[in-house]
Amino acid sequence: MPPTAGPAIDTRGLVRRFGAITALDRVDLAVPRGAFFALVGSNGAGKSTTVRILTGLLAPGEGTVRVLGENPRKAGAVLRQRIGVVPDFPVLYDVLSPRENIVRLSALRGLTREEAERRLEELAVALALDEHLDQSVRSLSQGTRKKAALAAALIHGPSLLFLDEPFEGIDPVAARGIRNMLEALRQRGVTIFLTSHVLPLVESLATHVAVIDEGRVLTSGPLTEVVGRHDTLERAILEALGVPPDVPTMEWYLP
Q: Most exposed of 111, 119, 134, 241 (fewest Cβ within 10 Å)?
């Protein structure tokens, strides 16, 4: 996309409250097109709430949101043709196989069954999912379910991909397949928005990072700028959060 197209994601003063709890507090994010953007923070920091607003599942209480230039709450089906989403808990019908799930979902995005089957065969090989395509989802491991959900999110060729904790609870083999796919997508210019606790993986994949805590963005920018003078992203985040990096000595504990 040309530079005049603007950022892939742009939020200004984003606020979301749930009763007395402020989940997001004046969040500003700017995600360049073609970036691999990672939103990192502890549990309850506001990562999943941000993803749900960006994908149109939640309305912001205050502020503005633009995703690929569109308001995600108003663009509806038009925007869904251009984005892919892998939520923290994959939404697949347990009684169906990955193939049945994905082919049915692809029909909602305008693909013929023949084209969906052709694309799925390629995705299944790339994700090492081919031997599981016709098993019931309920029989699959968490990692295989997440790979199936990723295939479903990619089947229509989106230009923007949202991944909410895609590596949570999966084995190293499944993680490697997902990582290889993400690296290939980044090389093709797909914009990726990732939330994750796995900081070494974020540091190896991301081009841009934002650190969020208690609904507020503490720092955001290119990975090299966020890491700055620190040896690792983890140390930079700990400083941003005001957490000492040293482990307590626990002298009282004598094994």
A: 134
